[in-house]
């Protein structure tokens, strides 16, 4: 529900030295196609917004950002990009409701509970924002000058190197359970302007709120969320919903979506993943490629996502004892078998220092179908940052120097004890 900090994966990857791998051969038990090894986001329940609406709510004195978001929402609703991202999940047309502006001084501080109170005060029969509608996503634009508290108790702010650009959740207003979104105005970052971040966050949260709008009484998602258990490593690197799965892709920013003058974020397609093509909708890059760990061991681990209470899941991983060094094997897959060569890099994903994992290799370059091996020493157990019982790592695959240009792709694995 809550989008992870912008810098989480990028910062960890930047710390790893780029290394490449040595060619091998496909093992007898290795899957033969990319579609067989890509994850699928599960339908955790039947709650989706088949005909969602989005209402952008901003402060009247907050410059042009509110108007820009309202126009971006209107363009997104009319763009074929919306259907490309959501139709396979049963979500059809998007409607941009009339935007609303909050008058008065921009507050120095805001909180999630304040936004809930605003919804209660402004939704209802004859109220200024209309009747509370369970199919409308109420999207609040948080001014850059406002200190925002998401009420999670984490103390993590909007924006910043350890912050988040937005999230979505749901609130009870009268008898209606309505989804809402928070869109943070953040400074420019390399490769993405402040406005691009804002409108891509709007697209991200609109997709996720439409396909997973609410939680149940236990706080569990009721729409499309979580991958199948064998691929739970991906949740450590991306988070749990459809747009989350593409938020760290190098191609995540879609700046030329049809009919749009604003940037949006690409979102995950289960159908494209199963076909072995780029699962982040709207990217025309061909071929698509990933190095995926064989993960021959099964174990039940505790998972912690977005600061949630740990939950147990049985998944596939490589078992290596704390203090020991082991070998991990993965295979390189591509949608075009003749593409390549590719380089492969593996980095510790926990962000801990000293790192939980010392990774040695790979070395060389690879072609599709090759086996890739690297050595891992487990320095110490994960201190419950992402999991209390497993250490995650990220795999970065990219065209090798001298081959056809293309983006880096990210996959994820786990080391258990």
Description:
By secondary structure, this protein is α/β, with parallel strands linked by helices. The chain has two domains: 44-224, Collagenase (Catalytic Domain); 289-416, Immunoglobulins (Immunoglobulin-like), CATH 2.60.40.10. The chain has eight helices and 21 strands. The protein has helices at residues 7-14, 34-37, 65-78, 80-86, 112-122, 194-211, 233-238, 270-274, and strands at residues 41-43, 53-59, 95-96, 100-102, 109-111, 136-142, 147-149, 166-173, 176-184, 224-227, 253-254, 264-265, 289-293, 297-303, 311-319, 325-334, 342-348, 357-360, 371-378, 390-399, 409-416. The strands form six sheets. Strands 2, 3, 4, 6, 8 and 9 form a six-stranded mixed beta sheet that branches. Strands 14-15-21-20-17 form a five-stranded mixed beta sheet. Strands 13-16-19-18 form a four-stranded antiparallel beta sheet, with no helix packed on it. A hairpin with a 7-residue loop joins strand 14 (297-303) and strand 15. The radius of gyration is 22 Å and the shape is globular.
Which terms would index this structure?
single chain, 417 residues, alpha/beta, Collagenase (Catalytic Domain), five-stranded mixed sheet
Topology:
Blueprint: H1 7-14, H2 34-37, E1 41-43, E2 53-59, H3 65-78, H4 80-86, E3 95-96, E4 100-102, E5 109-111, H5 112-122, E6 136-142, E7 147-149, E8 166-173, E9 176-184, H6 194-211, E10 224-227, H7 233-238, E11 253-254, E12 264-265, H8 270-274, E13 289-293, E14 297-303, E15 311-319, E16 325-334, E17 342-348, E18 357-360, E19 371-378, E20 390-399, E21 409-416
Parallel strand pairs: 2-3, 2-4, 2-6, 5-7, 6-9, 15-21
Antiparallel strand pairs: 1-10, 8-9, 11-12, 13-16, 14-15, 16-19, 17-20, 18-19, 20-21
Helix pairs in contact: 3-6
